[in-house]
Amino acid sequence: MIRVFHRADSLWQSDSWDQPELPSRNVWIDLVSPSADEIAQVQKFLSIEIPTRAEMQEIEASSRLYQENGAYFMTATVVANPYIDSMEASAITFILSGVFLVTVRYLNPKPFETFAARIQKAGSACLNSTDLMIGLLESIIDRMADILELHSAEVERISKAIFGANGHKEAPPINLQETIKDIGKEGNHVSILRESLVSVSRMALYLNQAVAQHPQVSEIRETLKEISRDLASLADHASFMSNKVNFILDAILGMINIEQNKIIKLFSVAAVVFLPPTLIASIYGMNFQFMPELSWGHGYPLAILLMIVSAILPYAYFKRKGWL
Questions:
Q1: What would the pLDDT profile of 149-196 be if each residue is shown by its tens digit?
Q2: What's the predicted TM-score (pTM) here?
């Protein structure tokens, strides 16, 4: 699908691609899961080479940030599905020149829809392709901040569930196996967010170089400096979340080890407690002909009493030492 926005009469208007002629300036062409034919049409119209989906997935900087035929090509990984149970991220390519902005994407992140709706309202501050690029970048960063807040709250919920259950007797027990799965999911989500933040930060730095010839370069670079500060603060928060997820994982693994040690300790204590009675029973279970105790009238109750006492003494000793 091809969506086209152009500025006319101080307003951004949405048009279809199949109209006879598009305006030559101030055009935003948004390619959403484009077909090969749609890509070919845009390439022919703008005389540029749009990267393929496989090329967009490449991770080296030279493949993601470069200049070609007077246009700047910038690819960043953007989160499209921020939900708790699953998160999706996809590479999105921005192609910027002085007269047009082209975006190529195969997912539908919310910032694109909200930004497109905003620029079509009266009073939009976007005047050209560079303003569109910066506005889209700001919308993406705002959305990423919201996603970080969402998953920060989820990490905090898991933390409270773990340490609350451990610290309060009335708290319900937690399913350690399910909790580890939740921690793993959040660890993966934080990793995706950090990857996205790094790629967007690199794109912002490259954009700072790309606007060197813009008439309003000083104002644009001041805006980009604020964007870089926002990205740095989000990256710091994502690093904090990553450390917290690792801490929670270490804590719950430690709790599992403690629970296992408790079980092993019970078996060990039981073995030690029943060892003396077993020894006494083994002695009097031997089939020697001459065993004086076998002829005692009170031999049997005395043996039982001796076994009980021999079991109580180790238990009392362990209790006094605080091992139980």
A1: 888 888 888 888 887 755 555 555 677 778 888 888 888 888 888 888
A2: 0.76
| pLDDT score of 258 | 83
Q: pLDDT tens digits for 100-148?
A: 888 898 888 888 888 888 888 765 677 778 888 888 888 889 888 888 8
SS3 readout for the chain: CEEEEEEECCEEEEEECCCCCCCCCCEEEEEECCCHHHHHHHHHHHCCCCCCHHHHCCCCHHHHEEEECCEEEEEEEEEEECCCCCCEEEEEEEEECCCEEEEEECCCCHHHHHHHHHHCCCCCCCCCHHHHHHHHHHHHHHHHHHHHHHHHHHHHHHHHHHHHHHHCCCCCCCCHHHHHHHHHHHHHHHHHHHHHHHHHHHHHHHHHHHCCCCCCHHHHHHHHHHHHHHHHHHHHHHHHHHHHHHHHHHHHHHHHHHHHHHHHHHHHHHHHHHHHHHHHHHHCCCCCCCCHHHHCCCHHHHHHHHHHHHHHHHHHHHHHHCCC
